Each structure stands twice: as structure tokens, then as C-alpha cells.
Here is the input.
Amino acid sequence: MEEFYIDCDGIRLHAKLDKPDGAEKCPLCILIHGFTGNMEEEHLTTTQKAMNDAGVAVLRAEMYGHGGSDGEFRSHTLYKWVTNALAVVAYAKKLDFVTDLYLCGHSQGGLLTMLVGGMCADDLKAIIPMSPAWMIPEFARQGTLLGTEFDPQHIPDVLQTWEHTLDGDYIRVAQTIHVEDEIARYNGPVLIVHGASDSVVPYGYVEKAVSLYKNATLVAISGADHCYGGYLDELYTAIYEFFRKR
Ligand code: FER
Here is the structure.
């Protein structure tokens, strides 16, 4: 494992690179956590291990305001995350051991994967949104995030819940994002992994994503929740099988 920072316009993004045993050249998958998440969460390390065992190097990167990266949590936005992810893609494209490039992210990182999939369609061999929280922009337009209601036409300076403090700019940014546009721009293979008992991302959104993508496969893990607690073996298998078959 190599640990380092990737520069994004002066913001340091904490990253770890894990290569499969013995490989000289191999594919690489960028792996990104969700809202409040980090690269050491078990569903992320399980995904990383499945990819490594299938012969794929994994570049885990933490986005603005999360994990060991720069920035305050409360001032992160989806635009900052998109800019960060583009910097990570650019970094990965310059690594000379990399044959093919993939992008995978969990929840808000899954939404990010869908957005960057459209933006970097040419560079990404396949994308893997896990439990993708792509309802966030619509919910922001409707005035409900994190179980808290607000006036979508009069965005508060701060969104305060019992657990989180988020600047209003998070909402301002999210309201402008139209994920369908980026879904339409990605024609490559898409693997969506989802916990069938996820209470964070409505199942209808997962079904809609699968039908909108031209080439999507869904692995729904029955019984699993948003972070696959108790179902990490099934998560491992879904990821491992996808890469073994490629
Ligand atoms: C929300 C629901 C889910 C939300 C964020 C998420 C900011 C993200 C979840 C995750 O990344 O795990 O209302 O609002």
C-alpha cells in the first residue's frame, strides 16, 4: 500500500493505492466514500479487497472535508467533490502501470461516480455506483435533506440537524445538478450494487438509474442496508465477479 496526497488546486486529497500481488501492468479503479464517510469504512475496504483479488489496483481517495483530506466538512459541496474527483482521474491517467481505468463510489460517492461518468465517459471503461444517492439533487430542489425540511426558494445559511452542520451552499449547488444529463452521456457498462433493505436511498431511484443507463446491471443484495452491514461477503462477491468476468 502506498499512502500520499493528490493535489487539487492547493487542496490536498488523502489517497491510498493498493495494487494486486505481482502485477506489472493492470487496470485501476478509483474508489470514493460517501457523505461523512472515509476510505477505511468496511464496505470500502471490502470493495477494495475484492478488486485487488480480481487483479485490479485500487486508488482510494478522500474528498473535500472528509477523512484525511483538506477542507471543512460543513463547507463541502458536490461541485468541490466533482473538481476533486476530476483531479484524481487526471492523476490516475498519468500512472504508467494502468491499463484500463474504472470509477466506483458509495452513496454520495455513487452520485459523484454517475456525474463524473458522464464527464469522463471516454476515460472510464466501466463505472460502479454503489447505493448511489442520486436523489440528493431532487431532494434539494424539493426542500428536504438529511430528514430536515427547508424552503428550497429561501435557502438557509446553515442546514442544522441533530447530527450534522452543513453550509447552505451545499443545497445551492445540489439544486443545480441534473443527474439524468450525465447518465445519458455514459454509454459504457455500469454495475449498480445496492442493498435491498437500504432506507437511505429509495429503491425506486436505483430501478430508474438501471433503466436510464444504456448498459447497466443491478446486483441487489437482499437484506443489506445502506452500508451492507452483515452482508460484506455478498458485496465482495458482487464486485469480484464483475471484474473476474471482464
Ligand atoms: C440525504 C440523504 C443521503 C443527504 C445525503 C445523503 C445531504 C448521503 C448519504 C451518503 O453518502 O451515505 O438527504 O443530504
Observations:
- Residues 78-93 form the longest helix (16 residues).
- The chain has a mean pLDDT of 98.
- Residues 34-35, 107-108, 133, 136, 139, 145-146, 200 surround FER (CB under 6 Å).
- The chain has one domain: 2-244.
